[in-house]
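queue> holo job accepted (protoporphyrin IX containing FE)
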Amino acid sequence: MNDSNKDIPRASLNVSTTSTSGGGGGNATGSGRTKVALKPGYGLMGWVRFTSNSSNLTGIQPKSGNDPRTNIITMIELSKHDQPDDCWIAIRGKVFNVTAYLDYHPGGMDELMKGAGKNATSMFEDVHSWVNYESLLEKCFIGRLAGYDLSS
Ligand code: HEM
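queue> job finished
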């Protein structure tokens, strides 16, 4: 599966960091809280509106034999998609194309990019294990990560 997703629209970046001091939260590097100001319209409701108007955010053309329910993505394939214009991420054994979500991520694009092309389960869990990523990224779901034991 080599289809890339260069045609997924991404807004230009305008993310400014407004870090708060002394917060108890954390980011993937353990350097404290990282609150970012997203562009107007790029909050949760903006994402909900955007996804409801999009049928397929996987970047993969629908064709026979290409079904997220049965697709198996190898680590090698996953690792090829590690750029802001082609960004896949695996969480708890599921692989998502988060290219379109980068501008909407409340923790900022740079934080999400730390997991680009990787199994980012532990990064995700460390920061916000409660976030309902499966629902948010429903239309970005590509397939399952090869060799990932869902029961573990
Ligand atoms: C490599 C993976 C990821 C990293 C390192 C990361 C990192 C972060 C960070 C640092 C914050 C700010 C936390 C704070 O200081 O308040 C944040 C917030 C958030 N992220 Fe992520 N994130 C990742 C993946 C994701 C994914 C896949 C989703 C959902 C599809 C997501 C959704 C959110 C949401 C909803 C918030 C706001 C949480 C809140 O306000 O309580 N993140 N993220």
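queue> The mean pLDDT is 83.
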